[in-house]
Automatic annotation (TrEMBL):
Keywords: Metal-binding. The keyword Ribosomal protein does not apply. This is VOC family protein. It comes from Streptomyces thermoviolaceus subsp. thermoviolaceus. The keyword Metal-binding applies. CDD domains: VOC (cd06587). PANTHER family: GLYOXALASE_BLEOMYCIN RESISTANCE PROTEIN_DIOXYGENASE, LYASE, PUTATIVE-RELATED-RELATED. Residues 10-134 form the VOC domain. It holds the Pfam family Glyoxalase. InterPro entries: Fosfomycin_Res_Enzymes, Glyas_Bleomycin-R_OHBP_Dase, Glyas_Fos-R_dOase_dom, Glyoxalase_1_CS, VOC_core.
Amino acid sequence: MTTTADGILQTGHIGLNVTDLDRSVPFYTRVFGLRVQTEGEDQGRRWAFLERDGRLVLTLWQRSHTSFAATSAGLHHLSFQAASLDEVRAAEAVLRDLGAEILHGGVVPHGENTASGGIFFTDPDGIRLEIYAPDGADTAAAPYGAAPTCGFF
């Protein structure tokens, strides 16, 4: 019997709860190069759909009253792959310009002797995010040795 799991599954889009859509939309559009596909409000409920190259990537829902809690069950972090380390460094410059919290001081590898790596940071609500490239990050020291960098930030 064929099930959905037997076929190829891809992430469709990611939905995030935020506290302030007016703050989150500019952050995500600037850092990730996304464009507002649509946004709306109905009975005080606000949302924005963000796309890139015609593909829905992220939906933001103004539903939260408190910042992200890393100690709660649910999302650990959201990771985006860039084509190159130069793209990661360009995003890092935007993040620094925005005053975002960047962990580990900048670009770091995913682990000791690992070529892949990137930047680890938080959005305005404290949601943990990552932008990485598949190679080129092995010139920096790994923050946690052999332990996965993306697991402990």
